[in-house]
Amino acid sequence: MNFDSPYNPKEVEDKIYRLWEESGFFNPDKLPPPSSGQAVKRKKKFSVMMAPPNITGSLHMGHVLENTEVDILVRMKRMKGFKTLWLPGIDHAGISAQNVVEKELRKEGLRRQDLGQEKFVEKVKEWKEKYGNIIFDQLKLLGISSDWSRTRYTMDSDYSKAVVEAFNHYYKKGWIYRGKRVINWCVRCATGISDLEVDYIPEHAKLYFIKYGPLTLATTRPETKLGDTALAVHPNDKRYKKYWGKDLEIESIDNDLPNNQPAKTKKIKIKVIADKSVDPEFGTGIIKVTPAHDITDFEIAERHNLPSITIIDEHGRMNENAGLRYKGMKVTEAREQIVKDLEAIGLIEKIEDYEHNIARCDRCNSVIEPLPSEQWFLKMEKLAKLAIDAIKKKKTIIHPQKWEKVLLNRLKNERDWNISRQLWWGHKIPLEGETDVLDTWFSSALWPFATLGWPNKTNDLKKYHPTDFITSARDIRDIWIAKMIFSGLEFTGQSPFNTTHIHATVLNKEGKIMSKSRGTGVDPIDLIEKYGADATRFGMMYQNLGSQDIRFNEDAMLTGKKFCNKIWNATRFVKQNVNSKIPPTPRLRRASKNQNLTEADKKILSGLKKTIVEVGNRIEKYEFGQALHKLYDFFWHEYADIYIETAKKQLRRSEEVGAPTKASELADEKARQQTQEVLIKVHEDLLKLLHPFLPFLTEEIWGILNNSDAPQSGGRSPDRKRRGKPIMIEEWPK
User: Fold this and answer.
1) pLDDT tens digits, residue range 178-191?
2) Which residues on neighbouring strands pair with residue 206, listed in sequence order?
């Protein structure tokens, strides 16, 4: 492009990204020193691991926020002379990938069982090769400057070896065991799933107040009454102290009668216990303990040696333990029926409307059923302590600090980790005769060092580990970040990253979680097509001001587009009015000593100095939105609106004072040159500060300003020493 036409990102972005990739400068081993008068060697390293998206994923606004933040930090560090590695990668996404391929098979009238495990796995691999890297192409559209030559995948051969090494290490220490515990079970996916794969969706429900002899309790799941083995109250709740330890004989539903007969009561005995996990503020302060169908109830049962009765099967239907009356019903059907029956026999005291979070599978949206299941577990007591100690001793800094306490509390209450999944796609558990695969998060926990070649002692592992920074959404803070910390300490003896930054969550305008499938999402590719990548990055960061929630407003992208045009037009003025004889560096030191500086010159140079300091400090503190606001305000208002207008007058001053003399011509020429020097100094430094936020625009402008052969106002072509040096490796302003 040239300045004869308005700025058009569609003509620039693809071209610029290809130039970046061809330069090889995303690879830290190919980085030259920053371009400056006194270039320094890249002695310090700065390494970051990309949070790996799923192979089934496409770019969403959370990705835009997360990766733009990292790209800003990485681009600044690269310009500051760091040997900068941003290593990208992708996760095999066990449940998600298996679901996607099964859907494809159903279109052909097939099930995975029709293919068998070996052929099904081949189908998943084929799907991955065809679609799995789409998100990388989308990240490139956004301008992400990762070292794509080092891209890793959690199922590649070297990474798989690292997973086996980690499993065998734990197994030999006796920390992996097989046992029966209550887990999150997805009846649709037919597998246990991790806490992270559970979405808690607010839904309207009912709160049922059921009579248990002299007591009444509230529950949202009356159907699980058939698996009750105790009632529990909080030890400090004096209302029920007289019932502690007693066996109450109460009336309940006779579940042995066929459901075509009227409901009747039968006598049962149930024990009352005291446990600190009970919330005395919920309902009446009494809960029913159903150990087989609630994780907390399971733990209560273990503490009090209570029996467990499973009444729901792995398909989400009532089993024989639910009695003849309810056997075979879906859970929702059984709930409806038992409420009718309890009302008929007078055991329902009241029913209230109630809104609470329903646990659903984030892959298929089915309601999660907590079920007892025989699974492989990893003991967490010692591993959790490793992470706790590292966080307390600041071996890993949690930012913002408020999340440190949250993460520590989670680790202090960490349950043994269910690491097995009943899937066909994933890392096979490396034990003879075992058909289950490992939880996806088992392999992801190794990410910061397995990506660098661990367990082999590679050059990359030596140079770039431990890493310096990682960022995460708060919904995976407890799951992924904690697991990476204790894994790094266990396998390398070091915390895997110096700082964890928990970034904001992007909500829609109404404050709802973004979801394309639910129609509440925004497609970033549409925004890039409409406004350009720089304006999209700008709009995201402009709204990113430290709150943990961003209510996304597309108007910010329009503001970004207008700002790009403002920068483009300001550059046109500078290019048309700066004498080509002015050397490119260093201008500020010379200009500051010149007694011909006007008050306007001094003010803009002083403001520039403050802006350089503040923007750098804000980025180092991960205050990306605040840094951008400072740049926006300074460039638009102090520089473009005020100084450039003043500079126009300073450049044409001699034309306004009458007939020139030789002395006045010489003075005017010096004043003109001084104004030109200040203009180019301020403009170039602002382009450098803006580059991490608006990489495409600034790179295009830099190329035009410094690589053009077209004569400028002084009649000479620009300095040739700058030819071909992109702004991405220029020196950060000082």
Assistant:
1) 999 998 999 988 88
2) 353
